[in-house]
Amino acid sequence: MIEKGVVLPMFYLPPVEYFVLLNAYKPGILIESEEHFPKQTYRNRAHVFTPDGVLVLTVPVIKGSKTHTKIKDVKISYDFDWQRLHWLSLQACYRRSAYFEYYEDELAPFYEKRFDFLFDYNEQVLQFLLKSIKLKVDLQYTQSYESSYSQLNDFRNSISPKKEPGFEQKQYFQVFEERQGFQKNLSIVDLLFNQGPHSLNYL
Questions:
Q1: Beta-ladder partners of 45
Q2: Sheet with 152-154: strands ordered across
Q3: pTM of the predicted model, to two decimals?
Q4: What's the rounded Cα separation, in Å, for the pair 4 and 161?
Q5: How far is CA 150 from CA 7, 100, 110, 145, 146, in A?
Q6: Which backbone phi and psi does 48 adopt, to 5 degrees?
Q7: Whether the Cβ atoms of residue 49 and residue 24 lie closer than 8 Å to each other
Q8: How far is residue 2's CA from residue 191's CA, in Å, rounded to a whole number?
Q9: pLDDT at 67
Q10: To 10 degrees, what angle do helices 188-195 and 118-133 make?
Q11: Which residues contact 89 (CB under 8 A, 6 or more apart)?
């Protein structure tokens, strides 16, 4: 039994590893909402599987002043139509998957409606993902920034596109696996679109 709770960042279409942790620490999950925005992390990017390999989808953010910006204050940039690009990419990657059609009507509005703040956008996408996977978790949010936690397992910096995932991942069927081989720790949508209602059992 897991004694401690966990503190996690808020990610965009988080990787499978993130949901493994959500599932493992269900009773005690704290989401970091007071940190300064770090660049080049899953907070505004996600990895999906294309016929040519892994594609990085990035939500552009408005360039702030030189002072650090709190994650809750980071605004999404609409200088180019990234929502259309992401949605077309998701369709191209997963239209042939077993369950894409099952979820697309609920996911599509996230690529039509404009959201001001990255944190709010990610939070609403996360709620959709939790509901789709049927993973019931009680999310609490930090009230202030703490550099470290003695009573919680701190994963704020350990889940990163630059690091190997911290768990042994079992393979599941992926659409382009025959061409590229199994790709680890992609966005949770890769699991959801390929495994559908079996996703929770996988986690």
A1: 58
A2: 139-141, 29-31, 5-8, 152-154
A3: 0.93
A4: 25
A5: 11, 41, 36, 14, 10
A6: -125, 165
A7: no
A8: 25
A9: 54
A10: 30
A11: 48, 50, 55, 57
For residue 71, the number of C-alpha atoms closer than 13 Å in the C-beta half-sphere is 29
What is the residue type of 47?
H
Q: Is 190 within 8 Å of 98 (Cβ atoms)?
A: no
Contact of 26 with 20, CB cutoff 8 Å: no
Rounded CA-CA distance 20/60 in Å is 27
Q: Which pLDDT belongs to residue 166?
A: 74
Token digits of residue 63? 């360039």
pLDDT digits (tens, 9 = 90+) for 139-184: 999 999 999 998 899 999 999 988 887 778 999 999 999 888 999 9
Judge contact between 119 and 33, C-beta under 8 A: yes
- Of 2, 118, 116, whose CA–CA distance to 59 is shortest? 118
Phi, psi for 141 (deg, rounded to 5): -120, 145
CA-to-CA distance for 39 and 62, rounded, in angstroms? 12
Cβ 171 vs Cβ 185: under 8 Å: no
Q: State the Cα–Cα distance between residues 121 and 76, nearest whole angstrom.
A: 9
Torsion angles phi and psi, residue 198, rounded to 5: -85, -5
CB-CB contact of 160 with 39 (8 Å): no
